[in-house]
Amino acid sequence: MSLRDVSPLSTISTNMAEFRSDKKHDFDLEVVLDAFRKCILPDGSLSLDEYLRAFHELCRFFHLTGRLFGFVAKDLEGKMKAIEARKAADMESHYITLQSMMQYEIREGMVRARGQHASGTRQFLRLHYALEFILEFMRQLRCSDEHARTSHIASEVYSRTLSKHHPWITRKLAALAVHMLPSKKHLIDVMCKHDYNSVQTLIDDVTAEGNRIYDIAQRAYENNNLAYSVTIISFILSNHLNNHHHYALHHRHICDIFYVPQMLNCRLDVLRSFYWLTRFQLSFCTLQ
C-alpha cells in the first residue's frame, strides 16, 4: 500500500470523539465579556493582554469539547504563545497594544518574518480571522431556535469566514467536527457555566463588544496595507488541490505565500508565473 492509498482523514477521524455531554462544563462568557470591555483603550487602541485573555477563555471552550475541536484550540494557543513569546523577548513597551506592536515590527523590518520566528502582527492576524468566525457563530446562534442544529450553523458560518484561510486538510477536519455538534440548547446547557437564558443575554453583549474590537483591528491592518485579501490564484490553487489531498502540506505552503499579498509587493505577472509553475509541478508529481 502506497502513501497515496492512505487518506489522512480516515486516520484522523478515528481519533475524533463525539461531543461529550456526560458532565457539566464551566466555559465562562463573563470572562470573555470582561476582557473585551477592557480591550479597547481610551485612545482607541487594542490591549494585547486583554485580547489574549479573552482568547484563552475561548480556547477553553474548544478544549472542553474533548478531541472534537482540540485541533482548533491547539492552533489558536500556538498563535497566542508566539505573541506572548515576542512580548517576553523584545522590549515589552512595544507590545502593549496591537497598534504599537504593528508599528514596531514594521519599523524594525520584522513584520514579514515567517515560520518559527513569525511576527506578532502575522500571528495576531490568524486570531483576527478566528474572531470573525466566533462572533458570527455566536450571532447566528443567538438568533436561532433552541432546537436548532448548531452543526448546520457552524458549517455555514465556517464556509463564509474561516475556511478561506485554511488549507484543504483543515477544512475537511472542521467539516467532520461541526457535524458532531448537538442542538443549541444542549450545547449551551452542557458547555457553559451559566444557565441558558443568561447565556443568551451574554452572547448579545459579547458580540457587540467583539465586533467593535474586530473593526478596530481590521482598520489597523488595512491602514498599514497588511489586510489579507483572497487572490484568484490562491482560490484556483485551492480548488486544484482539493483533488490531491496528499499534497495538503504543499497546499499550506502555497497559501502562506499569499498570506498577506500586499507585504510581498509582487506584481500580478510574477504571481501568475508562479501559479503556472506550481500547477506544472503538481501535475508532474501526480503522474509519478
**What is the arithmetic mean of pLDDT?**
75
Instruction: Note the total helix count.
Output: 14
Helix content: 55-70%
Main sheet specs: none
Order of helices and strands: HHHHHHHHHHHHHH
Structural commentary:
With 288 residues, this protein is an all-alpha fold. The chain contains 14 helices and no strands. The protein has helices at 8-13, 29-39, 48-64, 70-89, 98-107, 120-143, 150-160, 168-178, 184-191, 196-223, 232-241, 248-257, 261-264, 268-287. Helix 2 (29-39) runs parallel beside helix 10, helix 3 (48-64) packs antiparallel against helix 4 and helix 7 packs antiparallel against helix 8. The chain is globular, with a radius of gyration of 20 Å. Mean pLDDT is 75; it is low at 1-17 and 229-288.
Write the layout of secondary structure elements.
Elements: H1 8-13, H2 29-39, H3 48-64, H4 70-89, H5 98-107, H6 120-143, H7 150-160, H8 168-178, H9 184-191, H10 196-223, H11 232-241, H12 248-257, H13 261-264, H14 268-287
Helix pairs in contact: 2-3, 2-10, 3-4, 4-6, 6-7, 6-10, 7-8, 11-12
Brief write-up:
With 288 residues, this protein is mainly α. It has helices spanning 8-13, 29-39, 48-64, 70-89, 98-107, 120-143, 150-160, 168-178, 184-191, 196-223, 232-241, 248-257, 261-264, 268-287. The two termini are 15 Å apart.
Q: Descriptors for this entry?
A:
66% helix, disordered C terminus, 288 residues, globular, mainly alpha
